[in-house]
């Protein structure tokens, strides 16, 4: 079965009907506790309402407890000749692209619509085609403009839905990144113990 990938096949733009209520807006922080330590993500529901609401729905229902870091993309494990190399740490429920995530997929909020960019520490949604993102996330290591709307990483040109940024614990994210292997999927997924809102 296909896995959610940052590198997807060309597809037509698909629009999913959002079924999760958007947050009222404002800044929200969550603490992500991993086997290697914790990091804090900050997001603004007024900027990327659908994507933030989706993430918080997973957080508030405890669905990301015992999620895993299962894919680490480094320059060394991308195919030779890759035109748009990226560096990311991907985590979530590690579900197949067959609708098996607990909550439905969401509308794709592009960086053109939100004004956000894939900068160092940005939290974004993994997807195959637009409108398929749900329970898989990634964090940028360094600035990754190829992941923005119009960037070349995904052939459909829609980019990925950035919606937050690591504001504390980037050293932990880099420690996770250092666990990258010769292949992008790690042989031993790294556990995420809990994800909680914080004040």
In words, what does this structure look like?
The protein has three helices and eight strands, in the order ββαββαβββαβ. The protein is of the alpha+beta class and about 200 residues long. β1 and β2 form a beta hairpin. The longest helix is centred in the N-terminal third of the chain and has 12 residues. The relative contact order is 0.28. The N terminus is likely disordered.
How would you concisely characterize the structure shown here?
The chain has 199 residues and is an alpha+beta fold. It is built from three helices and eight strands.
Largest sheet: 8 strands, antiparallel, barrel
Order of helices and strands: EEHEEHEEEHE
- The oligomeric status of these chains comes to single chain
Number of helices: 3
Termini separation? 40 Å
Instruction: Give the proportion of residues in helices.
Output: 10-25%
Spatial order of the strands in the main sheet? 1-2-7-5-6-4-3-8
The counted number of beta strands is 8
Q: Tell the overall outline.
A: globular
Going by helix content, strand content and strand pairing, the class is: alpha+beta
Q: What distinguishing features does this structure have?
A:
single chain, 199 residues, alpha+beta, eight-stranded antiparallel barrel, 8 strands
Question: Which helices and strands appear, and what pairs or packs with what?
Answer:
Layout: E1 27-34, E2 37-44, H1 49-60, E3 68-73, E4 88-92, H2 111-114, E5 122-125, E6 136-140, E7 162-168, H3 170-177, E8 185-198
Antiparallel strand pairs: 1-2, 1-8, 2-7, 3-4, 3-8, 4-6, 5-6, 5-7
């Amino acid at each position: 079965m296909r896995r959610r990938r940052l590198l997807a096949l060309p597809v037509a733009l698909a629009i999913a009907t959002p079924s999760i209520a958007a947050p009222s807006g404002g800044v929200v922080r969550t603490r992500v506790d991993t086997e290697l330590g914790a990091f804090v993500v900050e997001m603004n529901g007024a900027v990327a309402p659908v994507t933030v609401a989706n993430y918080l729905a997973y957080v508030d229902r405890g669905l990301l407890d015992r999620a895993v870091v299962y894919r680490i993309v480094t320059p060394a494990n991308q195919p030779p000749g890759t035109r748009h190399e990226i560096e990311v740490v991907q985590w979530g429920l590690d579900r197949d692209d067959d609708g098996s995530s607990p909550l439905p997929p969401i509308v794709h909020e592009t960086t053109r619509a939100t004004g956000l960019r894939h900068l160092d520490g940005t939290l974004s949604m993994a997807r195959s085609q637009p409108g398929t993102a749900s329970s898989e996330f990634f964090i940028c290591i360094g600035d990754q403009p190829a992941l923005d709307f119009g960037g070349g990483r995904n052939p459909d040109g829609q980019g990925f839905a950035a919606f937050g940024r690591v504001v504390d614990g980037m050293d932990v994210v880099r420690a996770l990144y250092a666990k990258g292997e010769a292949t992008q999927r790690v042989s031993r997924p790294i556990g995420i113990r809990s994800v909680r809102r914080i004040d």
